[in-house]
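Bumping with the actual sequence this time:
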Amino acid sequence: MLKTKQTRCVTPASSGTLLTLLETLPDAIFFIDDAATTVYANASAQTITGATREDLCGKPLWRGAPHLVSTSLYQAVQKTKQTRAPIEVEYVSPVTRTWLHVQLSPAVGGLLLHVHEQREPLPRWETFVPDEHLADDVLKNLYVGVGCLTPEGILLEINEVPLADAQIRREEVIGQPFAQTPWWSFYPASQQQLRAAITRASRGETVRFETLVHPREGMDLHLEATITPHEEVDHHVEYLVYVGTDITERKRAEGATYALMDALPHRVWIARSDGSVTYHNQRLIDYLVMPLDQIQGDGWMVGVHPDDRPQVQEAWQAAIQTRGPYEVEHRLRDGISGAYRWFLARGVPQRNAQGTILHWFGTCTDIEDQKRIEEALHQSQERASALMNSNIIGINVIEGEQIVDANDTFLRMTGYTREDLRAGRINWRHMTPPEYLARTQQAHQELATQQSMTPYEKEYVCQDGSRLPVLVGGGVFQHHPLQAITFVLDNSARKELEQRKDDLINMASHELGTPLTAVKMQTQLVRKRLEKQSHHEAATALSRVEGPIKLLERLIGELLDVSRIQAGRLEYVRERVDLGSLLRDVTDTMHHFHPSHTIVVRETVQTSLIGDRDRLGQAFTNLLSNAITYSPDAETVEIDLSASEDAVTVRVRDHGLGILQEQRDKIFERFYRAPDLSQRAIPGLGMGLYIVAEIVKGHEGNITVDSEIGKGSTFTVTLPKRRDA
């Protein structure tokens, strides 16, 4: 078991005659042990300190006798303990304001202190005063808190500034642990800061820190504290010098500044002159989602993309060395999503009147959108370059009717040379055949009004007089509205293929039409003979063949119509047509072939127009057939007929599968069929709606479609009324 050495207080009753003699001496006598604990204090010592024997004995000298405590005395005690040689020291009591002359003598188990109080110093005595002794007249005139501490943190001296702030007397704190004084003990965090700083300083380190203290009720002060160790020749720390500067006003100003910076939409930071970051505004903290203590210094660098860290550090070091502005682009990680965004970091040094850098003020500006635009522009430039160098697409730049620039592909397609281009011998109007001139002028008018043209088909007259089928599109340059760029695709292969396909369709429809007509006539003839001979069952079976024959006949008819449309040979009869009567006839026919559906006709007004009755009947038959085909689970198809003073409108509405938005412009194309959303096998070649659109166009009308998936489609046909010729 460990045994703790007990300090026994010496009293006159316990030591006999010698101590009685000491009690009669006019000077104060103290005996302290090796730990500086008072073991004995005579009556004069009690008088000079104003304390009882119980107040003095058993306590450290620094705590029990604050009237005597000074840095000079503390140093003398330490030196006597080390050298074991007598020392004398003279100084002014910080409490009584009288001169004290103290003789220190080593003794068994401790030191004997003989304290003599006098009015004037004794010049003939060599006093022990350290170079760093804090003269009282200097201390009370400083606007900072200055103190002297033992390496263990016991307060030896302190000036009036902190005492006045705390409204306490010096003797209340001298000899006490500095961390337990009123202004330090109120905030545990500040108290811990001070204790940690004293521990570091006692090892020989100068420590600086900022903290908050509470001298008295209603008063908080921000301090910038420095604790500096005083070392002997052998580097042993003798005592610590504490300086606390009041920076409350600066902190308030900084607080107002920081509040303003927290309200800014920008991300703001401040760094010391050495580059260590001390502040980030709330917007930057919220973005990084990092604790404040982790961000400070260079901790914020963990949020920088690893690939960007070297260039950030290089730019920062260069700015510090050159004392010039700091600017670099880098990516910062969003602490919430984990994604990186591009920022532009800028910093400028703030200097005092002498040109010394006090700190750096900087911002981080989000440039993610700008970087995306730059990247998109870069990619666009690369694409434009690839496009201009394309050997597939011809590109030319026009100004008015003149082609002022072109890529090699366009020149090769049309047979012109770059010399022709430089000489101004390429003109789009001169290259356009008469039959395409109106459509070309319409495209250029569209280009002027809408800044772009819908791609259209035409032919160019090449330099050698040959013709080249092309597909042309283009747009206006935003930075040069008088110029436009057009893209030209060689369409000859497609035209040749279409011509072959049209020739095949025309030939096939004619070749199929003749034998089909013969089959149809023979079937009808045999059926009639069987009926006359009362072979009704056979006649009925044969009649079922007539349905598929009629379907084939209709498909061949549509093929012929497509062929005529492509050749521009689809003719129309001009006659007055009662549209209501036509729709009823079409409906009756469709009822016969599709008894599963009910067709409801709503005719709000009787109306007629000039047109081709058979062709219009064909168009509405195709629309009804399409409505019935694509509403297999519905039972009703509706037709609405209405009219205005100038036009007639027919709406065919079904309650079927519906059409996807992106397919609505394509369903009127030749041979196009919308995907079957129900996964059912619906027959057809994709010609019906193409023929409908051409017939409506042939009557100078238009057709549109509205649809919703799963709820059906509505086809609207608008036809102009015509007066009798």
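The tokens above came from a reply further down the thread. The chain has 23 helices and 27 strands.
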